[in-house]
Batch of 2 targets.
Target 1
Amino acid sequence: MSDVASGTERYLADFRAFAHNGAAVAPAWLKEIRESAIARFAELGFPTTKQEEWRFTSVAAIAETRFTHPASPIPQLGPRAIEPFLIGGGPRVVIVDGHYAAELSTASSTPKGVRVSSLAAALRTDGDSALARGHLTRYARWQESPFAALNTAFLVDGAFVHVPADATLEQPLEILYLATGRERTVSHPRTLVVVERGARAAIVETFAGVAEGGPYWTNAVSEVVVGQGAHVELYRVQRQGPESFQIATTQSRQERDSFLGVHVLTLGAGLARHDINAVLDGAGAELILNGLYLLNGAQHADHHTVIDHAQPRCASHEFFNGVVGERAHGVFNGRIIVRPGAQRTDSKQTNNNLLLSTEARADSQPQLEIYADDVKCTHGSTVGPIDPMQLYYLRSRGLSPETARGILTYGFGAEILGRMRHPEVRAQMDRLVRERLGEGQA
Amino acid sequence: MTENVLLQVQDLHATVEGREVLRGVDLTVRAGEVHAIMGPNGSGKSTLAQVLAGHPAYTVTAGRVLYEGKDLFGMAPEQRAREGVFLAFQYPVAIRGITNAYFLRSAVNAIRKHRGQEELGPVEFMDALEAKLEVIGWDSSYLTRPVNDGFSGGEKKRNEILQLAVLDPKLAILDETDSGLDIDALKTVAQTVDKLRRPDNATILVTHYYRILTHIAPDVVHVLAGGRIVKSGGKELALELEEKGYDWLREEATVA
């Protein structure tokens, strides 16, 4: 415990240095929030497995590692360094070790009215700063989560996306978060996406690292606001190196009659925890949470989702599949809250886990909290090896056991991939899934 | 007379979960023939079908089966399929995430590869499939759906028949494919099976009901009861069963 406590101390010391540092230039309102957030982090400290929310996931390795907040400028990366992680030729924002990399980004080529920039730049621009102030830090629950608090305390940069009313972001916008892995760095990228009434956007967040080897830690928070009748598809790929750590929160708030699809592919990091908190805050809103985790080696990935039905007539459909091999450990916790008055809620949750070895492990926990009476809520989860009847069925059609296993395993992923609507994004995700599973057939 | 014998079942005994279900089945099927195997519930009909396909839950305890003169039980389920044995499942299995087209093409290519034929690419395969789809009255939307996932009972059965048509086996075993089908679906299934009849292949229809046999005239009808074939005859036997039920046979066959 003393190591964990001293871990907390290190971040308090780093914050004091950061708060007096020129890099921390920010509007007064944000400085105030940062101070509150670091105070909250000091109170909360790093979580332990004694806490219900962290029962299956120990972050002791993060607390004990001496990560540093890089003070030096970002190392120059050439375009070739980011190429393997890009999907299309659309606009992109590249964040390296938590800071906007202008030379790698193509944010200027966005359609008229749509703003895509670095968050730091947005905070320096009058109009954007006012907009950011109305949203930033208002959704992600830093008062409850020590990691969101830490991210908020060190909030400097990330991506800023504003799609005004009735505008359309034609091509998917790519936000690439790259870690250089130098000097055991920790970064706290912070992204704000505001899609206004009737607007449409697709965004791909990719988390990756350029260097193999040294441990690094990405502690990310993204806040996504979906206005009335707006339509947003948010894709997220986490393919960090196996020695790295990733803690992240995706926080969304939807207004009435809006649609949000959140598609998650988790492949990387030695230790990953992703909290998705979705609030359906307007009648008639629809949410799809569609996730896949493919784990091997000694990987540990924990997905915690909270879907908050705060208003009536909302629909949420959640599908998370996991394929867990070798000694890896997958955790899924899906909480659904139906607030009083959120009548005619339609909510469905499934989490299916395929275990590829006897040492692989998956824990699946649904949590329903229903405070309204006219609701339709279903949930189901499975954990187990390949179904022998499915295997037999395929073999009875002439497929070898190896091919049959490959097809059945890929099917776990393909089911999730099939819900991704942008063909170029889906194709990239499909390629990553096939690479990981070694299922090479077209 | 061993000429044209495709399948020879000799004194076959099999157990499931320690319970003996097949108690000495003898059956000879020649190329060009259609055999119907009828019998009351729990008589071992489905067990016989599954044992021939290689279901892992069944254990063969005695007897042997020769398929084209070779020991069937010496072959893994996929080898049997590649050699031309096909079982239309009574309860087809759903596979989420894998489209019917991908599944069918994988199966066809596994068999083509075994025969030394070139594997088919997606486009060639779709061309070849078009005509087969028409036969069972399906449009191509069934191909992009996951295998049997969310299919109705009738759709699952039709999907088995589509596989039968596409894989073109030498020995087709239909395990109660007619159960749970409405008249139109039954006709489609029966007509498809009838069209696939050739002098060099054979069909075993495991069924509960007479009605499918009005569309596919069997050469031989067997009654399976208590784990053995207690009576065999021509298609008139099926009609007799339809009228009299199975009780009279049970009495005839009572042997401890």
Target 2
Amino acid sequence: MSIALFDVQAGFGGPAPWGSETAGPDEWLAEMRRLDIARSLVHTTPDDSIADAPAANEELYAACKGHPELVPCPILIPNGGHDLPPEEDQVARAISEAAGAAFLRPQKDHWELDAWCSGPLFQALEARGLPAYCENMKFALADLAKIAQTYPELPVILAKLHYLQQRSLVPLLKAFPNVHVSIGSNYVVYQGLEMLVDEVGADRLLFGTGFPDAEPMGAVTMLTYAGISDEAKQRIGAHNLERLMEGIRQ
Amino acid sequence: MTSLLELGRQGKPITDIEIIDMHAHINVRFGVPGDTGPAAIVKAMERTGVAITLITTSSPVSLQDADRENRSVLEGVRAFPGRLLGYLRPWPVAERVPLEEAATQIAEGYVGVKLYTTCHVTYTHPSYDPYLAVAHEQRRPVLFHTWGQETDLDAIRQVARRYPAASLLVAHAGSCNEPEYIQLARDCENVYLDLTLSYSPRGLVARFLEAVGADRVVWGSDTALFSQAQQLGKVLGARIPDEAKIKILSTNARRILDRVCT
């Protein structure tokens, strides 16, 4: 049985942290074809060297144009400094560009998670159902839980998990039904996928690779060989992320 | 013929080749809730088609604990003959054992030795000497935990020269300091680069192959800490020919195991 794949954790841009290889959109598209990955949510990498988020977003939108298999995940930022479009406009623009989520990086973009600073952005995302894409190293799980609790209609995608977080991850998913997790790098937990399906079900687990940092096939085989049902594999592989995209209010 | 990449993509067990996992643990006691016992590992092997897994202890905290853990490794090996092989993990701060005692311990049923820099000892620590000497005499594999520290890699270089008949597997190769791992393998013919690594840097397998050749790279998974299937994917998906993948996953390990003479 072939498992359809929609990658929630991929990107392209500058050189990868390891080695000297760059990974542009063409490299990722070729890799998607090689591994039979149908679609991917993509952001610009390496994101920690991107200071001008709006410019990076324009490049991302341009790279995704003409490639319906690439779903942009632009960086959105609260407009506390009045140097950016209002939050509602940022979200509207992202949706008009067929974005599948908003990449949030509070520390890099110098904003606070509390409502007095970022409330308008989270409210705008929640109002339109545009998922918040949050990477583990950028958000303490406690902060992520606070966001999930404060904005219960906002789908939150947690990516770049560490392999020793399982004992926090399970209660997080149980406590907050709007939290979804990527199984991409560095979630390599022994029997972790099986345990998550048993404990919280398959509906909030999302296939992801971690390209370009990680060799993407590891996430593929973790899913295809998992000791879970084929139906669960299909949900994790693509259906769950497709469902999240369908929830975005155009 | 279906390629190894296609088999992995389809989730079909790979049984046409004898896949050997040279780096695994049982009874993992930190951060991995779930059954990490030998039976659970063998069950997971059935799904991927991995034929043999070499296991060792997880994280003993004392000499007595290491003894208990080593015994549990032996029990696992005996419970699943031919599917699980074991490494003995000597506790480095124990009093140096005589050569005969080290040989007797290994002969209980271990195929090789796994060494750590536990308690901040180096791999040239005298307490490790008897085990390395036995590994040399009997051409056994020795698996070293490393994380790119030059002091560790330099110590392994010394060990490789002192005990050239032992097969030395350098775990977590490429975790950092990638060029130093490559140089170590180039300097020492009995050193193998072990791919066990959680984050699987893109292109690492191909770079190692280009640098040291397909005969000097072995596959390990670090299960039951990591998903064995996930770690398998980094080789199945590498941009290298299937012939090279087979060497990494199978024939290199088979050659190392077949060298062992007791």
